[in-house]
Amino acid sequence: PCCWKYTPAGCALATRAQTLVDTIEVTDPVASTRHELARELVEDLRAIDARLADNQRRISAEIARNPTSLN
Question: Most exposed among 12, 26, 58, 69, judged by the fewest C-beta atoms under 10 Å?
Answer without folding.
Answer: 69
